[in-house]
Amino acid sequence: MTTQRWILVFIFSLASVLGTVELFKTKEAQTYTCRTIGSGIVQPFKGESYYVRSDCPFTLTSFTVNRGEYSVTIRRGHNGLLVQVEIIINKVTTLLQNGHVVVQNKSVSLPYDHTYQHIVKYGIYTKLRSSLFPFTVTWHNVDGGINSLWVTLESELSTDMCGLCGKQNLAGHRHELIRDSQLHDLRCKTRDPVLQKNHVCSQFFRRTKSCLQDNNSHFHQLCRDNIFGFENSHEVFCPFFQEVASQCNQSRINRFWRRLTRCEKPSCPGDLIYEKKGPAFIPSCSNPDPAPFYQELTETCVCPRGERNLSL
């Protein structure tokens, strides 16, 4: 075979290989997030946020992937905070209660590594990440419980999905989602929201119209639902104001919202300083160069400039 023919064969072979690679390119996965904050606000994977006032246990989300079960169930206490969260990943049960993390009935310390999941401190939050499927649960502990929790999926929603976070391709009506997601317990109650004005909510959402536009009145109602009965509980109402301020991300709103709502910045242990966007994992003597996973930015507590955390 002549040199020219060898070149032609090589070019056609390369084109064939490149064409094959192109066929196997996958579309970037969609990311879905479902949040529950305060005393009962739920932002489903799809659709409009809503409110549920209840001390009953609920399925937040549940679905199966490759015969593996993934589910999150929640229960709020009379203080409005989440007092019990159960996470199941492929038959491994993790319980969040009283500030503790219990895996398969054994209390664990963080970071925790398991065949199916990893649990780490993530800035001011704690994050559980599945090692089998792009599924994470992140939460914020406060005195009395958990005041914000969200589930993130980097995958298309499963066809058998159910829970307060919604169903695949169907946002679902609020009453339908609440009814179908509530777990049986005769001792608990689910109450309708009370129509009550609140001065702080009115002042706050008077200044967010340009940002939220047509959604402003809906968020204002969520604010009233969330704060009613918990007017003195910053742990309950502050996460909601912060979430709205974060969504708007306008300097004018960022300047006033903490002063208006009297929501202080999260406190940090020792000499650490709160930072709105900083490394999820603080470099330390034992781990001076955290892995790229920990370099994601989040709300965090950092060392003063030029110093390193010697306690880790």
Describe this structure in words.
It is a single chain. By secondary structure, this protein is an alpha+beta fold. The protein folds into three domains: 32-181; 199-261; 268-312, no CATH class. It contains seven helices and 18 strands. The chain has an eight-stranded antiparallel sheet. Helix 3 (199-206) runs antiparallel to helix 5 (216-227) and helix 6 (234-248) packs antiparallel against helix 7. The chain starts with a helix and ends in a 10-residue tail after the last strand. InterPro entries: Mucin_vWF_Thrombospondin_sf, Ser_inhib-like_sf, VWF/SSPO/ZAN-like_Cys-rich_dom, VWF_type-D.
Entry summary:
This protein has helices spanning 3-23, 174-181, 199-206, 209-212, 216-227, 234-248, 251-261; strands spanning 32-37, 41-43, 50-51, 53-54, 57-65, 68-76, 82-89, 92-97, 100-103, 106-108, 112-113, 117-122, 125-130, 135-142, 145-153, 190-191, 273-279, 297-302.
Walk me through the topology.
Blueprint: H1 3-23, E1 32-37, E2 41-43, E3 50-51, E4 53-54, E5 57-65, E6 68-76, E7 82-89, E8 92-97, E9 100-103, E10 106-108, E11 112-113, E12 117-122, E13 125-130, E14 135-142, E15 145-153, H2 174-181, E16 190-191, H3 199-206, H4 209-212, H5 216-227, H6 234-248, H7 251-261, E17 273-279, E18 297-302
Pfam families: C8, VWD
GO cellular component, one term: extracellular space
Signal peptide: 1-19
